[in-house]
Amino acid sequence: MFERQSRIGSWTPQGILLFFAEPPPTQYDLRFMVGSVPVRVHPMFWLVTVLLGATGQTPINVLIWVIAVFVSILVHEFGHVFAFRYYGIHSHVVLQAMGGLAVPDMMLSTRRRQDWISEVVIAFAGPAAGFLFAALVCVAVIAAGGQIREARVFGWMPFPYADGIHSPELFQLVMDLLQINIFWGLINLLPIFPLDGGRISAAVLSATNPQDGRRQAFVLSVVVAIGMAILVYAKLQDTYMAIFFAFMAYTNYQFLQAMGGGRGGYR
Question: Do the Cβ atoms of 75 and 137 come closer than 8 Å?
Answer without folding.
Answer: no
